[in-house]
Amino acid sequence: MKKLISIITSAYNEEGCIDELSRQLQAVFYENKMYDFEAIIIENVMLALHEAFPNLKCKPHSHTSSQISYMLKGKLRMRIGDEESVLSPGEIGYVPPNIEHSIESLDEYVLVLDIFSPPRPDISQRLDDLKEKGSSNPLF
Questions:
Q1: Which one of 22, 50, 110, 133 has the fewest CB atoms closer than 10 angstroms to its CB?
Q2: CB 29 within 8 A of CB 82
Q3: Which pTM was predicted?
């Protein structure tokens, strides 16, 4: 995954870095045949590239993993505990372990890189199930 690290580093040195970072991350996920399943696990870290279509609401939930959400495209309302804010491209949200949180995409398509540590077992299991079924849609 040295390529992934070098992509993130080089994207910050370019004009339009968020668009470039988004494009290059999608390319890495496709190249590693992981984009359909939208996650890469490296030791104790899970990188998950998530999409949300306009006006999607996620019910409040919590998990034992720390989560960092890095916005690539669109705007996302994120509620973490009692705090709420709208994240735009280039902004980061941090969710501590076991804290209830939820998201809502606003009027546009959203692409976010979520980083979980440790990897979320529920996502890992869902990805394994999808691979066994041969499904490329993480929702089914």
A1: 133
A2: no
A3: 0.71
